[in-house]
Description:
Layout: E1 2-7, E2 10-13, E3 18-26, E4 33-39, E5 46-52, E6 58-60, E7 68-73, E8 78-83, E9 92-99, E10 113-114, E11 118-123
Parallel strand pairs: 2-11
Antiparallel strand pairs: 1-3, 3-8, 4-5, 4-9, 5-6, 7-8, 9-10, 9-11
Amino acid sequence: QVQLVESGGGLVQAGGSLRLSCAASGRTFSSIAMGWFRQAPGKEREFIASIRRSVSITYYADSVKGRFTISRDNAKNTVYLQMDSMKPEDTAIYYCAVATDLGIIRLPSSYSYWGQGTQVTVSS
């Protein structure tokens, strides 16, 4: 089992920044990639960003490219999401996730473990 705990969510004004963290514990050796998704009420879960564990490859949704940066510290089993130039459209619950059998990187079904989520609200 892998357990994930997100932190760093909160309320910011448009144009501001937040940094999310996700700490993983358990069978982290099976992790192929870690990623971030978000979900607003009534909306489908949306891919935000993902990073491979063993190679220097990152993936971003077009909506956040150039504004958000994903990074990780394998020694700490922690992944981060730096969010800059935030927009009201970024308001959602943000979830981190672990892929143990990587398929299509942008699909939620490619990820086996999920955190409880952290609320991010951007005011205008």
